[in-house]
Amino acid sequence: MSDVVVVGGGVIGLMSAWQLAEAGLSVTLVERGRCAREASWAGGGIVSPLYPWRYSAPVSALSALSEEVYPGLCDELRETTGVDPQFSRHGLLYLAVEDADAARRWARCQAKPLEDIDADAIRRMEPALADTHWVRQGQGGLWMPTLGSLRNPRLGRALRARLERHPGVELREGCEVTGFKAVAGQIQGVDTAAGVLTASRVLVCGGAWSGALLKHLGVGMAVAPVKGQMMVLRPAPGTPRPLSRVVLADGRYLIPRRDGRILVGSTLEHQGFDKRTTSEARVSLYRSAVRLLPALARASIEHHWAGLRPGSPGGIPFIGEVPGCRGLHVNAGHFRNGLVLAPAAARLGVELMLGRTPCVDPAPYRIQREEPAGPVSTPGSMSVAGLAQSTAGNWC
């Protein structure tokens, strides 16, 4: 018997298990596949919401804490496991920003450096963008110099390696949770294909599958899968390194890798648990990449994949104990920002489990026993105007 069973081995589950074990608890982490191979693997690795001013205060609070943690966390993981998550602060260049005034207000409120940049400065910063549609027309953009990014598959491998070496953690991969054990409103453990795992506390970090898992206990939680397709492009042989910073326009982004490849993302699709890639997305992503960076017209598509984000109302995660079931905790529904929010979200969840003073006000993340039925509304599915209206004035 363990003190805690953590269900789900994505970055949220891995970081939560690590923090619980560091607090002296015995932890069994159960993952139906292999750790960090779902949404944690499939994302782009940008350590910030793409348009942070379009999110509400609860998301901003966790994001700000996590951004402070990531540089030191990645250094520690590199030194202790030998796996380098390749964290860097190359910044992000925004083009075609419709709500630039809202972005500037957010930056002032959050004390974040966000600079207006004209077309000439963009050409000097990234010469390959000189042929980009917006720059050719003389349009400028916004420049966020402190934004960081990392290789999320490497982060997942590093976290897994760290837990493998921790005496307080047992990893059980290839072990699917099929139900929960609860008696008189108290959690007793989980059912798995390999038998029952008993524990006085269970933490569900199942990503897009969390809502379906909790239905076994009659708990309705508005977490639904939102598919995202991405690609990685290999520039033509002999092509100079085309890009050194993350570039974002019209919701599509390019992320340069150290090896010269360019990652392009991503789609937002409500297709249930279907992770198949489509020819339509392949064409759309490639066209977006070339529109952003015409030099990629001769690039080849090296890999095309899809992942499932855990969509939630407003993109605000559910963190805390489930009402009516003592010892059952949830940390899920981070939508596009699981990687972004992971260090702070895991910390908050562990603090609530252990009765410690929470790092942020936990009220916005509380789980209701019954969530309203209907489609999940996320920032990614709202219009720019709707986003500006829904978040205006919520940052200070």
UniProtKB/TrEMBL annotation:
Which pathway? Answer: Cofactor biosynthesis; thiamine diphosphate biosynthesis
Task: List each coiled-coil range.
Answer: none
Recite the UniProt keywords alphabetically. Oxidoreductase, Thiamine biosynthesis
Give the superkingdom in one word.
Answer: Bacteria
Extract the Pfam families matched here.
DAO (PF01266)
Chain ranges of the FAD dependent oxidoreductase domain: 3-351
In terms of InterPro entries, this protein maps to: FAD-dep_OxRdtase (IPR006076), FAD/NAD-bd_sf (IPR036188), Gly_oxidase_ThiO (IPR012727)
Name of the protein this chain belongs to:
Glycine oxidase ThiO
**Organism, per UniProt?**
Halomonas litopenaei
